Amino acid sequence: xxxxxxxxxxxxxxxxxxxxxxxxxxxxxxxxxxxxxxxxxxxxxxxxxxxxxxxxxxxxxxxxxxxxxxxxxxxxxxxxxxxxxxxxxxxxxxxxxxxxxxxxxxxxxxxxxxxxxxxxxxxxxxxxxxxxxxxxxxxxxxxxxxxxxxxxxxxxxxxxxxxx
Length: 164
Fold this sequence. Notes:
single chain, 164 residues, alpha+beta, Immunoglobulin-like, four-stranded antiparallel beta sheet
């Protein structure tokens, strides 16, 4: 007596293979939402990481600031408006910090933050923050900050520099 037809066995195999392929894709995130988990910006492009930005710069520490504490644990940037890739995909961006000796490290992925007392260089300011481990900044160094999307091959965009 035959309980399963050859067709149902084939269908079951197809479902198993499809499910096994879908699980790793689901774990990657993807999709679109307002939480910064939108698709990766500029996939397959070597353009600037936030190509449609109308302006982005350092907020805290600010551009050109000296005497920044080496105990600083976050880098904040301000962007002009919310119609850019940074706003729709902020969870895919980080900030690269390079010192004057060529050493570099990155913040964690960015989060939106509010900063009513922060700099207001634009008509519509949106703030983002990335964390760095305490003690990452060395005293007496100059750091240049770059907006980066690490899961792409886009070109990090210069945000400004500061000194400890």
